Amino acid sequence: MMHLLQPEISRGRAGESSVAGGAGGPDGGTAGAEMWRLAGVACAEMSAPVAVLHLPALSFNAGSLLRRAGGKPIRVASKSIRSRDVLRAVLAQDGYAGILAFTLPEALWLASDDAFTDIVVAYPTANGPALRALAADPRACSRVTLMVDSAEQLDWMAGVLAQAAPVAPIRLALDLDASWRPRVGGRDVGHIGVRRSPLRSGADAIGMTLDIASRRLGGQQLFQLVGLMAYEAQIAGLQDTPHTGNRVADLAKSAVLKQIQRSSMAEVTERRGNVVAAVTNIVELEFVNGGGTGSLELTTQDPSVTELAAGSGLFGPTLFDGYSRFKPAHAVGFAAQVVRRPAPDIVTVLGGGWIASGPAGPDRSPAPVYPPGLAMVGTEGAGEVQTPLRGPAAARLRIGDKVWFRHAKSGEVCEHVDALMVLDGGHIVGGAPTYRGEGKAFI
Questions:
Q1: pTM of the prediction?
Q2: pLDDT for 332-356, tens place per residue?
């Protein structure tokens, strides 16, 4: 797995349209159907559920992300991958540097592997045993950076560390709120984006910077501020070309979304630059992280940002089918087996309810892609133990046949299988253990 990616593709020598189409591009054409048919042949003797990772599609996506990043390094979001083999392979490519982890226990586990020496935990922690373990491990202290956004978090961490005698200052990064709050008459009139950090201004960030510097234990510095992160979820994580079937409504909504994103990007670029300038008057930062898969080509234009973040774009789930700026290849899918036939035009597969995080809705459900001509039953959707599917293809399916699905987001699929079967040219060329396959579950 160390040579999982094809360098000639990841360095941008292959055309996007040809590779994406051949790997099952977002247009859902015959090339995509052929990929899933070949996956079915390759995995014919395997019991479901089984998940596959299509090597050419992963390589294409890795190269596409690098081109969109415009020369800035990409920190890989581990929550979207959840496989150490895949993380190692991606980080072996020029242009990828560091991990954006999702929990401290995960970061400690990764830090024990010399392939992962730069790990930023993207979310605050409240895990006392893990924090004490970090404080006692000099190697982990040098490799792991924790996220903070309030004095309340610093108080809690200081209380835990008072019992731990840290071997080195704990590396910290500030999480800057990057949501957009439109203003009319000098007043906020809305909130567009996620609700993460209370830090929004230079004054907020300076207050936290000084507070971090003031924390001491036994006369020794307790924390070291090394970075700043600002994730523009309303740009990176929001499709700007919805497809509901109503062309007029979709065009109108797309125009509104694109205008929101333009305005939001302009605002966060100015505000983030001001905050970074304010903080660097006090302390030198090692990194300023921004963006996500959906906003790389926009965020990279911000001169205050030194690195980008991406993860889901490597796998190309369905939530990225509605972006105008890029079209990822479909690199990951999973199969469930037919176990029932409630009606001539309906079959039921075992399981299938691998629902993605976020607001509940059809866009968070997996989508059946092969054989073509299947759809969820609206009154039931994707179920925990069974999922009925209706359509012309149902009549041709038999008990034991596999139905292939694409997942709505990336990370959750790996929570259901022990390994991703790696496919190249219609053949299984290896397996990449998931976190679950290595006996790990971090949330």
A1: 0.89
A2: 999 999 999 999 999 999 998 888 7
Residues 34, 38, 39: CA angle, nearest 5 degrees: 115
Burial 420-433 (b: 16+ CB within 10 A, else e): bbbbbeeeeeebbb
Q: Which long-range contacts does 195-199 make (Cβ < 8 Å, 24+ apart)?
A: 196/149, 196/231, 197/149, 197/150, 198/149, 198/150, 199/149, 199/150, 199/174, 199/175
CB 167 within 8 A of CB 136: yes
Closest CA to 429 of 125, 165, 58: 58
Nearest to 172 by CA among 137, 200, 147: 147
The alpha carbon of 363 is separated from its chain's Cα centroid by a whole number of angstroms, namely 16
Cβ atoms of residues 91 and 115 within 8 Å: yes
pLDDT of residue 238: 66
Taking residue 210's Cβ as centre, other Cβ atoms within 10 Å add up to 12
CB 339 within 8 A of CB 349: yes
The continuous run of DSSP H or E covering 261 comes out as: helix 247-280
